[in-house]
Inverse folding.
């Protein structure tokens, strides 16, 4: 059985930096029909997606906030994405940084950080008090970005102590 994902929490939104969009890139929110572009991004790192599955699992859900789904673009084409999510449509306290992914040819340019920060600013501006996320042990560059954004590890299972220690050792080696 696969291990459950690691968890992180961002306990406050004070002091979030301004958005700095890398040269040659843009930032926009979801627009009708973006499911196909979103699926193309996710298929490079977060499973197998189609436009239909995206509508069923994400954009068609009542907790979806269209203005909280961000795309980093290159020449107007979406190349990275992150989504503000809620456990339920009634949730307005704890938001979720959800489905962060950047196409491989655009990684290493700060786009994951950009779309993640856009989500955090969105949550803050709508009155959420904190954010959480799920991640995998192997996603060291993403975890480094989350830590820079103010997320902290959450230790909710006994195995998390050793797993987080290994992750932090991996960050120190980079």
């Amino acid at each position: 059985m696969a291990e459950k994902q690691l968890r992180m929490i961002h306990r406050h939104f004070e002091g979030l930096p301004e958005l700095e969009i890398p040269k040659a890139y843009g930032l926009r929110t979801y627009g009708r029909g973006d499911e196909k572009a979103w699926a193309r991004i996710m298929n490079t790192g977060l499973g197998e997606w189609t436009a239909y599955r995206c509508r069923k699992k994400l954009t068609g859900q009542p907790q979806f906030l269209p203005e909280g789904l961000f795309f980093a673009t290159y020449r107007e084409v979406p190349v990275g994405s992150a989504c503000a999510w809620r456990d339920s449509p009634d949730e307005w306290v704890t938001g979720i940084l959800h489905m962060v992914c950047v196409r491989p040819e655009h990684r290493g340019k700060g786009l994951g950080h950009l779309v993640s920060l856009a989500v955090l600013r969105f949550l803050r501006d709508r009155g959420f008090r904190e954010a959480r996320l799920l991640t995998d042990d192997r996603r060291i560059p993403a975890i480094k970005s989350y830590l820079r954004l103010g997320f902290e590890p959450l230790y909710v299972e006994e195995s998390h102590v050793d797993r987080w220690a290994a992750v932090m050792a991996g960050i120190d080696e980079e």
Remarks:
- Helices lie at 35-42, 51-59, 111-125, 140-148, 160-173.
